[in-house]
Amino acid sequence: MLAATIRALLRARSAExxxxxxxxxWSATFDAISDAVAVLAPDxxxxxxxxxxxxxxxxxGTDRRALDLAGVESGDELxxxxxxxxxxxxxxxxxxxxxxxxxxxxxxxxxEQERAAALATxxxxxxxxxxxxxxxxxxxxxxxELHAWHVAAESELIVGGDWYDVIETPAGLWxxxxxxxxxxxxxxxxxxxxxxxxxxxxxxxxGIVESLDRLNELVRTTGLTQMATLAIVAVDDDAQTGxxxxxxxxxxxxxxxxxxxxxAESAPGAPLGVTGATYAESSVELALGDRLVLYTDxxxxxxxxxxDDGLERMRRSAEGVDGLEPLRAKLVRELSGVADLxxxxxxxxxxxx
Amino acid sequence: xxxxxxxxxxxRADGVATVSVSGDLDLGSADxxxxxVDQALADSRRLEIDFSGLNFIDSSGIRALVSIHNAxxxxxxxxxxxxxxxxxxRTFHLAGLDTVLPFS
Lengths: 353, 104
Description:
The complex is a heterodimer.
Chain A: H1 2-32, E1 36-40, E2 46-49, H2 51-56, H3 63-70, E3 77-80, E4 83-92, E5 97-104, H4 106-133, E6 144-150, E7 160-169, E8 172-183, H5 184-203, H6 208-222, E9 228-236, E10 241-247, E11 253-255, E12 262-263, E13 282-285, E14 291-295, H7 307-317, H8 325-337, E15 346-352
Antiparallel strand pairs in A: 1-2, 1-5, 3-4, 4-5, 6-15, 7-8, 8-9, 9-10, 10-13, 11-12, 11-14, 14-15
Helix pairs in contact in A: 4-5, 5-6
Chain B: H1 2-5, E1 6-13, E2 16-25, H2 30-42, E3 46-57, H3 59-75, E4 78-82, H4 86-94
Parallel strand pairs in B: 2-3, 3-4
Antiparallel strand pairs in B: 1-2
Helix pairs in contact in B: 2-3
């Protein structure tokens, strides 16, 4: 009987010391946590707070502050002085106790804000650069209707070396479509230089073939870029005839008012940047209502597929739609795969009216 | 992946280095092709690019070819491109390369 009592007492004492040990462990852990943790009663009064918590609040245990905490929910962000905390609320024992944990996310937020600011800056640079590549407005001519589109209109993050231009010359308009090998801001900056050089040659009175010769010489001697392709169509003021020259660029598509779409007869010249390249001119006749489509290879090139397949797909896609904007929309929709607009694409369309 | 779709070998005979290409010459293989040509030109002044096994060439492949052409012109190497499969001749024609590059 006595022995049994002693054993029971010893067991109780051992259990008691285990409980004390556990309490000390818990207390040390509670204070060691860098997050601020407080235990609240259902009425919001503060029952217990760890060291980090007390450091945040100058006057620990005041009812006012505890009541503030009772109103917070998990996921809230709490601004205390210059610091921001993320709140987590654990309800235990049927809401008899609320454990509120505050994690300091000030530093993480600052990093996030810096990143967002950097992205915004990058987008502004990209947008500005891209805009400098393209004419602000297309010139109006009585006999030629124009419409242009660049992928940057759909996706601001795509910056690349595709550009178009419409240059006004005394004899008519030059429709220019160009593509610099490569992507990103470097390609875009190079494209800007080519675009403006071409404008200079046009304004100085050179023809399209002479301009390509000069541009090729410029690219070759300055190493401005490794390679670029370009298509130019110089359209007369009455819009009946266009003169076409190509530098490594696929030929424009002619979509007649009546009859099948076809690619303009051309004399392909080598890309800009090729030593010894020569260029030649051919002509395109436009009947009333005929449309002309200049484009970049982002619209026709697919991995593992021959260029002819890509061209044929484009030719078929151009059938059965009126107007310039609807035609452009159909081509972009069917050929570039809008869900996957990763490559640079530009389109310039003209119609004799 | 690249090995499956592209292969390039360099052989030498009578002072001519022949770079034979098979498969797809594209973004993934253009640099390998360019390196093989540089290696071939290191100890040969005459280069032959054999495209008989070429299946496909994209704008990156054309760019590599243009840079080889320019390097040969500048440094005075003799080179030619042989055995372009008929269905790829049109690609080279559309790119305007048949007006300048020595195809045979």
